[in-house]
């Protein structure tokens, strides 16, 4: 157990310390600490006179009276939970032993880094895939019905022909409308994903990430930034903060392959089922994180109590060796 540190009030009424027991004894031998100098260490409930600390002051010849020094009452001590009261005479105390009931003070760990608020809404992969399924079905089913009717010569009737054509047109309108909306929703989710990374130092803004995809030819390069770089920066950012360490990670290989899929559409059909579930999970995590607040608790972000430590029940049987 480490040796306790001491504080004392000098002759100008200023609080000094902390100093080790050895240094405190050296100050006493040099005359800087006298019999009535006020001293304090962890575990004492009150300041005490130096004369109450056994073996602190150098031995004095019996025939020589020590020079009287004015009693200096401590003024506004800077140590939390340190009472400023008159000296207490009692059994000798020492600085080399730790009080039996004193709580050892430990320096708090560095404050945990908390990722700030980002987005309010996440993503729903179920909604996204249903839009595609219903949209494609709305296009294909009327076409299949019309084709079947044509094969069975049921379109010779003008009324049937008109109805089939109208049904196919409605199906095409609804189907393509749903597919367009699904693509817009994807861009919204991509925007939110980049928006999540802005407090972490993202290199691309959400507006650029989405907007540059509409630039002809340039967008063939930009998909590697909007998707490939997104996965790298996402994984880097979420791994550096306490409240995002359990955030879903994005597959860097999957996102890079998805970007290549813009040149090879058949490949993108496969990677689509890798990329978009991960994006939806990621932004939903961030939205849920924001709804709970930046810290999640009121004890300093990591469960630490940063209040002052109160020492109680200190014993008074310590002495210098």
Automatic annotation (TrEMBL):
Residue span(s) of domain GYF: 6-56
Coiled-coil boundaries: none
Ranges annotated as spanning the membrane: 129-151, 163-189, 210-230, 255-276
InterPro entries according to UniProt: GYF-like_dom_sf (IPR035445), GYF_2 (IPR025640)
Pfam families: GYF_2
Domain of life: Bacteria
Bias kind Polar residues: ranges: 81-99
Region Disordered, annotated ranges: 71-103
UniProt keywords, alphabetically: Membrane, Transmembrane, Transmembrane helix
Protein known as: GYF domain-containing protein
Species this chain originates from: Rubritalea squalenifaciens DSM 18772
């Amino acid at each position: 157990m480490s040796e306790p540190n001491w504080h004392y009030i000098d002759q100008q009424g200023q609080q000094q310390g902390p100093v080790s027991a050895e240094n405190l004894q050296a100050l006493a031998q040099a005359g800087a600490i006298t019999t009535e100098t006020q001293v304090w260490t962890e575990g004492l409930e009150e300041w005490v006179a130096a004369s109450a600390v056994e073996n602190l002051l150098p031995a004095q010849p019996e025939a020589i009276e020590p020079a009287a020094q004015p009693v200096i009452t401590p003024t506004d001590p800077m140590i939390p939970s340190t009472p400023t009261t008159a000296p207490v005479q009692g059994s000798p105390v020492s600085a080399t032993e730790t009080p039996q009931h004193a709580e050892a003070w430990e320096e708090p760990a560095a404050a945990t880094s908390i990722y700030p608020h980002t987005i309010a809404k996440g993503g729903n992969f179920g909604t996204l895939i249903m839009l595609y399924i219903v949209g494609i079905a709305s296009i294909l089913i009327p076409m299949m019905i019309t084709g079947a009717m044509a094969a069975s010569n049921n379109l010779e009737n003008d009324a049937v022909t008109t109805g089939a054509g109208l049904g196919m047109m409605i199906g095409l309108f609804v189907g393509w409308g749903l597919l367009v909306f699904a693509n817009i929703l994807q861009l919204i989710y991509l925007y939110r994903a980049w928006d999540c990374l802005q407090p972490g130092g993202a290199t691309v803004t959400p507006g650029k990430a989405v907007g540059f995809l509409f630039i002809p030819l340039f967008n063939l390069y930009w998909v590697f930034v909007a998707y490939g770089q997104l996965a790298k920066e996402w994984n880097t950012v979420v791994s550096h903060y306490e409240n995002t360490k359990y955030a879903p990670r994005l597959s860097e290989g999957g996102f890079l392959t998805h970007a290549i899929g813009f040149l090879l559409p058949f490949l993108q059909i496969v990677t689509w089922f890798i990329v978009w579930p991960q994006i939806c999970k990621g932004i939903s995590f961030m939205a849920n994180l924001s709804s709970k607040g930046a810290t999640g608790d009121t004890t300093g972000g990591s469960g630490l109590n940063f209040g002052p430590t109160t020492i109680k029940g200190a014993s008074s049987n310590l002495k210098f060796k």
